[in-house]
Amino acid sequence: MTAALETRHLVKRFGGFLAADDVSLSVEQGARHALIGPNGAGKTTLINLFTGALKPTSGSVLLDGEDITGLPVEQRVKRGLARTFQVNQLFREFTPLESVVLAVNERKELGGSAWRPLVAHGEAVDEAAALLERFKLSDVMDERTSMLPYGRQRLLEIALAFASKPRVLLLDEPAAGVPEDERHEVLNIVRDLPEDVTVILIEHDMELVFSFADRISVLVSGALFTEGTVTKVSADPRVKAIYLGEDA
Amino acid sequence: MSTMSENAGKVSAPVTESVAATQLRRLSAWRAFEIVLWVAAFAAIFLLPSHMLVLTEIAIVALFAISLDLILGYAGIVSLGHGAFFGLGAYAAGIFAKHIYAEPVTGLFVAAAASGIFGFATSFLVLRGSDLTRLMTTLGIALMLAEVANQMAWLTGGADGLSGVMVGPILGLFEFDLWGKTGYIYCLFVLFILTCLARRLVNAPFGLSLKAIKGNPVRAAMVGVPSRRRIVAIYTVAAVYAGIAGALLTHTTSFVSIDVLAFHRSADVLLVLVLGGVGYLYGGIIGAIVFTLLRDWLSVITPQYWMFWIGLVLVIIVVVGRENLGRWHTFLPNSLQERLARVVNWRLGMKLRGEQ
Q1: For labeling, which of A178, A198, B152, B227 is most exposed (least CB within 10 Å)?
Q2: Distance between CA A137 and CA B68 in Å, rounded?
Q3: Model pLDDT for residues A20-44, shown as the tens digit of each residue
Q4: In which element (H, E) is residue A60 found?
Q5: Interface of chain B against chain A, CB under 8 Å?
Q6: What domains can be seen in chain A, in order of their start residue?
């Protein structure tokens, strides 16, 4: 079976600094794949190479077997690659409703439509309403995003990524910064993501990684250090020394 | 994937969906202040017959400022050279009327096409870079165009301006009169139609995606908004609007001065928009009224120094911040504030729970 997301000999150089060092990674369809590594290991760089925010120095990125290395960000989104950000990247002046309607419109190729008002595109509105319901945002959908509690904003962050119907969803520390009492809601949403969506999780919280992921890749100094099942990686003494040791 | 959204669709109550639709409908509903503004503008035809010339000027500046608002207020593209499109439209209309066909509405389309093509071609230069780069690029384009018009005196009249422009009756029916009444009605109709079109555009998915690009370009790309295409499109539309505003000036004055391409046009329109507020279309109209009246009033009381006062107003706006100036109503008593907000934001159409 073709991998959902694959990289081949991916290299990214910032001047003399090697942020991604020959990364060849393969993520199965429908996998729950965690990407871990100490700070500065190049996790964010790798995500940016996946989404197209950065262009690699060399190597390639494949989505469902198709080479997407040359495509800009928005076209990768159209092909089913979405992400959330470690620090919320939201439309602060929009309401959650407007934000989700925007995302649904763009997926439906309605974004260039300049004549009929938003409400006239009924299917998109209904779908946005259903998404807001699913992500428990219905009651605040007409409030300004910047006024929402952080946990709610976090849910909107995931809802926006989900609205583009991704086949591969990159979650960059989904629960980061969420207060304890709102945390379980975010984690439930992450756990309940449909099985056919491939999820790549970047996370520092080992508890979450071990409970959520079925495979783990460990990144150290821009290079892939080891990869395997949760049991294998968590038992690896070298991983413990490099990474888990810090937390343990 | 599809199964999941279908499931979600079944779970959600129909009530939620209709609330969502209502909320979106409210975004594009006509508000009380808009209706009042247009009624007043049309009533002025009969009520202020001796002020037709200044009203005409306001209408033209308003259209020009709306054009700038489309790129600045919606897509977040700053420009110090928007006068280029205004001037190009003015010259296109003048040259077309003088040499080819004197009917003005046809001239509007010609001016729109000329400015639109130039806008499309130069839009690619504002796609990249910071605000500063954009300011300098747009400024540079406007300066170059002004110099080209100056040098091509055989076509444009150069520094003497393009004279001998004979503007025929509108649609062959309505002759321009000495008091400027026809001119005002003409400009007001064009302003009204183009504002309605702009309203549709900014309230449609296209407008929402522009606001998204302005609000958070990183996330906009990440939900699939093709920013470059959208910016090219709105920049072209804005150029068309500015060109039409320029053409209106030519048609109502039967003359094109090299001044239409001067730097102060671009600076003034930015000032007008800052005065009126960006990002809601009517900032251009309100700003044009305030700016024109302020200028006329100041130039009467201090004929030689009115620029000083305009400058002072600009500094105050920037230092105090337009948001704060716009919040003058917060000094009013609470009950009055609420009533005021209700009146201004009253709109046609459906009501939400708890709203009177």
Answers
A1: B152
A2: 35
A3: 999 999 999 999 999 998 888 889 8
A4: strand A58-63
A5: 1, 3-5, 8-9, 11-13, 16-17, 19-21, 23-25, 27-28, 200-201, 203-209, 211-212, 215-216, 218-227, 229-230, 233
A6: 5-247 (3.40.50.300)
